[in-house]
């Protein structure tokens, strides 16, 4: 077995959890943005671990179990080098918008099902993927805390929770991390959330840090868009040209800096504060290496400011999710 390289680590919360500052988001390995090959994905995950990427982010709803099974297989023999992360709370409703379930009984049941698919005894960081507005957050987090007591879970997280929800949850049990979309294109809610997570000593996990691929510069025309991405307003014809113009500015600044647009984008995120880590998703080892290379890109405060000005807060055209998904985020 190859020994893992040491990558720059950052703490998530104050309870002792730490992860590589660049992680790997697993979602697109379950066919969300185009075709996948499981054997190649497993190799890629093992390559990531060998490069020192230990923050592996999954959810029970990525491929409705497929992603956890895949990651579980890929990490066999490498479990001690991985911070295993998954989520519960979205439920499948055929032909409709996903449901949410934050009832205490469901939390316990979902965790057992995830552990079984992963083939492991313990999840390092367990998130509520979407807040259930019909269940008090205290009840949901109370059940998550029982999982910690039982040794099934080590640390707790919330995804797309708004500041008030985070404060209430954190009173029940320490929250190690909040995961919310955060990139140069979409950062309004993330920046609001970070005022609270920073005050409470909670880590911030930036999801979709490459803007679902837009900020990589590889999406140049509408015909480059595949999979579920096509439903996202940012990629729709009425918004595409505006967003493309914004990305073109990042491409130009990356060229000046001698790095790729993905690297500039990730380096900008990590420069926002030591509480921030990013989990870009990719199917390819080469792109994973490129993304990890963002750790070598050092931005001066002036460069960070110029990048922020190039894509000002709120500049992206189109909401973060299609209309049906918006009520489920920032709850
Ligand atoms: N909590 C939540 O509600 C939530 C929601 C969404 C996502 N997430 C998490 O965040 C992770 C990342 O989000 P995401 O995958 O939606 O978006 P992302 O990381 O912003 O972008 C991923 C896309 O960028 C492409 N890409 C990645 N690196 C590249 C590179 N160096 N050059 C060119 N293209 C590159 C990938 O395509 P290729 O595969 O072709 O490289 C993929 O299509 C997910 O995997 C998931 O773990 C969480």
Q: So what's the overall shape?
A: globular
- Annotated CATH homologous superfamily: NADP-dependent oxidoreductase domain
Bin the helical content: 25-40%
Low-confidence stretches: none
Element string (H = helix, E = strand): EEEHEHEEEHEHEHEHEHHEHH
Looking at the overall shape, the CATH architecture is Alpha-Beta Barrel
End-to-end separation in angstroms reads 43 Å
Supply the helix-strand structural class. alpha/beta
Number of separate structural domains: 1
CATH class: Alpha Beta
Number of helices: 10
For the biggest sheet, the summary is: 8 strands, parallel
Query: Rounded to an integer, what's the Rg over CA atoms?
Result: 19 Å
Sequence of strands across the biggest β-sheet: 3-4-5-8-9-10-11-12
Describe this structure as you would to a colleague.
The longest helix is centred in the C-terminal third of the chain and has 21 residues, at 237-257. Helix content is 37%, strand content 15%. It has one domain (13-212, 271-302): TIM Barrel, CATH 3.20.20. The protein has 331 residues and is α/β, with parallel strands linked by helices. The radius of gyration is 19 Å and the shape is globular. The protein starts with 8 loop residues before the first strand and ends in a 21-residue tail after the last helix. The protein binds NADP nicotinamide-adenine-dinucleotide phosphate. NADP nicotinamide-adenine-dinucleotide phosphate binds at residues 25-28, 33, 57, 129, 159-160, 179, 207-213, 216, 218, 262, 279-284, 287, 290-291.
């Amino acid at each position: 077995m190859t020994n893992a390289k040491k990558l720059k680590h950052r703490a998530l919360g104050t309870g002792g959890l730490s992860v590589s500052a660049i992680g790997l988001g697993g979602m697109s390995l379950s066919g969300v943005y185009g075709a996948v090959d499981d054997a190649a994905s497993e190799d890629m995950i093992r390559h990531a671990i060998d490069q020192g990427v230990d923050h592996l982010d999954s959810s029970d709803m990525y491929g409705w179990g497929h992603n956890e099974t895949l990651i579980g297989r890929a990490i066999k023999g490498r479990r001690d080098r991985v911070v295993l992360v998954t989520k519960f709370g979205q439920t499948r409703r055929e032909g409709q918008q996903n449901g949410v379930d934050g009832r205490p009984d469901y939390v316990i049941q979902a965790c057992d099902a995830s552990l079984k698919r992963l083939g492991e005894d313990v999840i390092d960081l367990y998130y509520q993927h979407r807040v259930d507005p019909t269940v008090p957050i205290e009840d949901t987090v109370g059940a998550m805390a029982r999982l910690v007591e039982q040794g099934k879970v080590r640390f707790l997280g919330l995804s797309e929770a708004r500041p008030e929800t985070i404060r209430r949850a954190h009173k029940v049990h320490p929250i190690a991390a909040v995961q919310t979309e955060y990139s140069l294109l979409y950062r309004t809610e993330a920046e609001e959330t970070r005022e609270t997570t920073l005050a409470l000593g909670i880590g911030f996990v930036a999801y979709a840090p490459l803007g679902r691929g837009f900020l990589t510069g590889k999406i140049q025309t509408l015909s480059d868009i595949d999979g579920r991405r096509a439903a996202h307003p940012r990629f729709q014809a009425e918004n595409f040209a505006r967003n493309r113009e914004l990305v073109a500015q990042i491409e130009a600044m990356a060229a000046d800096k001698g790095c790729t647009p993905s690297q500039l984008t990730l380096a900008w995120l990590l420069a926002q504060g030591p509480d921030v880590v990013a989990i870009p998703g990719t199917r390819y080892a080469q792109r994973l290496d490129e993304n990890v290379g963002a750790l070598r890109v050092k931005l001066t405060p002036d460069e960070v400011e110029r990048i922020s000005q190039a894509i000002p807060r709120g500049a992206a055209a189109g909401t973060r999710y299609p209309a049906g998904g918006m009520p489920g985020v920032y709850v």
